Amino acid sequence: MPETPVTSESVAVRRSAVRVLLRLWPYVRPVRGRFFSAAFVAVVASCLSLVIPLVLKWLVDGPVADRDPGGVWLGALYLLLLGVAEAGLFGLRRWLVARPLSSVEARMREDLYGRLQRLPIAFHDRWASGQLLSRGTTDLMIVRMFLAFPLTFLVVNAVTILAGCALLLGQDRSLGLVLLTPVVPVMVLCSYFERRYGVVARRAQDQVGDLTTVVEESVLGIRIVKGFGRHRSQADAFRRLAELLRSTELSKARLLATIWALITVLPELAIGAALVLGSVRVADGDLSAGTLVAFLSTALALRWPVESIGFLLAMSQEAVTATERYFEVMDAEEERDAAAPAAAPAGAADGLRFEGVSFRFPDAPDDAPPVLDSIDLHVRPGETLALVGATGSGKTTLTALVPRLHEVSAGRILLDGEDIALMERERLRTLVSVAFEEPTLFSASVGENVLMGAGPEAGEPELARALGIAQADGFVGRLPEGTRTQVGEQGLSLSGGQRQRLALARAVVGRPRFLVLDDPLSALDVHTEARVEAALREVLKETTALVVAHRPSTVMLADRVALLSGGRIAAVGTHQELLRSSAEYAWLMSGGGDGER
Ligand SMILES: Nc1ncnc2c1ncn2[C@@H]1O[C@H](COP(=O)(O)OP(=O)(O)OP(=O)(O)O)[C@@H](O)[C@H]1O
Ligand SMILES: [Mg+2]
Question: Which pLDDT score is estimated for 260?
Fold first, then answer.
């Protein structure tokens, strides 16, 4: 989880807060017309409230002093009209911003989702999913609310306060100065508070992310939690995080309460002082009663704009952290395509080649040996090569390099002579199909899940063929709605072997030129495995394939075998050759097929 940046310099914080918020501009830009009109309407509405004291002054010094009932009625009518206009304008403002701002939120969310899809696996390895979820939900909501409310009202209140101050000083200079004394201390307190609040707000939002992660993990891992009777420890973990979040929220509330108290009490004292001073002067006759009434009602009209600044600043601070958290994801390094797509060589079939490929995980400690170290390997065109190695030897890692789920640290991988690092990812991924150890199914129908592996033109015949190869047609036919049956989140409703067969069907449905299978048959019973192998043999004839194998039966599908050991290719040859020449291979292949697992 990224650390909270704590800057001590308040000016730097303020400036960077503004810079952070300015990054929202590209999203607000398309709706700027409505947005600014709404702000303008709000400023007008708010300034209307300052006209009310002037009408009062006229009323008190004019018709009231002259005992003219007609004038009083007229004054009351003016006041009523002003009130109605103010309310109407605020309503108009709300109507103006509501729809554009929800479209801003939707667009930001869409961008975030798109970005999450494009970010490399290395990023997803590093980030907890709950942190990503909370950015896409809570943080974006905070940003929308900020745009709708605090942003506008900080401007509106500032304008209103300035206009009000001018009116106060214009009506009576000395009373005005008395009233304005608390301004400086309040501003200093606000800026101090804003800094403190920013730190706590960031902590709270990160903790929401952690909490989301725990909830998500316990829901996804509910079988493990129940199976091992871990409810209590999961609940404890949840309670700890919830408690942490609660205490952070409490310190937020405490900060807010303090600032609120100061912001309300100081102006109140000033109004009291002005009232005493003003009454004395009215009694002395050097101030008209109407001026005092107007003065005090202006001061009262300014109370709300001043008081609300505290929580407007708080909401803005939360929006700053939310924006920061949003852009942390948006700024993460994307998978990049080579600047200039290399001119494809004349398609000379050369198969799949690893040349001096090394790989270490980006977050591995510096002194750790690389997972893969100078791998040289050639899968000839049309050949099937089995990759064998002890568990944890790096087989899955090696296969993930081919579709560029991870980037090689050194060396290169060539498909028919073309460096994959220079290929457009989209083309690379149509050339290469993969089935991983952990078959993942999406919340969609069986057919959609399988056809995901093919282009948009693939349909029923391709689906039927792929299901046939994976020996999945039998069980799919028995599902309530056949290939249209919805499979749940992660395919929970299917058995491990059934999911594995659908993943295999997905890998072969697009008739890929290169096929990478990571132990695709591990969850099948021997009879199903034999039938899948028989069908797979036909597919493998047409493609160049790299198949991770743990059992002799899977190895039998391959023309040759490579042994991965200590991060290097220790031996390459046929099954028989390696049985004779490599003790490690012989050991891996003995022990009842998959004794090493
Ligand atoms: N994201 C990661 N970050 C750091 N290390 C990792 C990561 N993923 C895997 N590893 C490590 O890399 C090594 C190779 O893992 P890999 O999954 O490639 O093994 P494997 O040969 O496929 O094993 P198995 O036969 O059990 O499937 C292991 O030691 C593993 O702990
Ligand atoms: Mg593996």
Answer: 81
Distance CA 404, CA 407 (A): 6
Beta bridge pairs of residue 445 = 486
Measured CA to CA, the distance from residue 359 to residue 396 in angstroms comes to 12
At residue 47, the pLDDT reads 85
Q: Within 13 Å and on the Cβ side, how many CA atoms surround 566?
A: 3
Which ranges of 285-344 does DSSP label H, i.e. alpha helix? Answer: 289-301, 303-331
Q: Answer yes or no: are the C-beta atoms of 238 and 150 closer than 8 Å.
A: no
Q: Is the CB of 361 under 6 A from ligand 1?
A: yes
Nearest ligand 1 atom to the CA of 398 is 18
Say what the pLDDT of residue 563 is. 94
Ligand in closest contact with the CA of 400:
1
pLDDT above 90 for 359: yes
277's tokens: 């001073």
364 ligand 1 Cβ < 6 A: yes
Supply the DSSP symbol for 405.
S
Name which of 214, 217, 219, 220 is nearest 241 in CA terms. Answer: 214
- Residues 4-29 have pLDDT tens digits of 333 334 445 555 888 888 999 999 89
Q: Using a 6 Å cutoff on CB, does residue 596 contact ligand 1? A: no
What's the CA gap between 290 and 282, in Å, rounded? 10
**Ligand 1 closest atom vs CA 121:** 1
Only one residue has tokens 């803005």, namely 316
**Local structure of residue 286 (DSSP, 8 states):** S
Residue 377: CB atoms within 10 A of its CB come to: 18
Q: Are 514 and 545 in contact (CB under 8 A)?
A: yes
Cα 398 to Cα 421: distance, rounded to the nearest angstrom: 15
**Phi/psi of residue 519, nearest 5 degrees:** 45, 60
Regarding the beta carbon of 397 and ligand 1, being less than 6 Å apart is answered yes
Mean pLDDT of the chain: 84
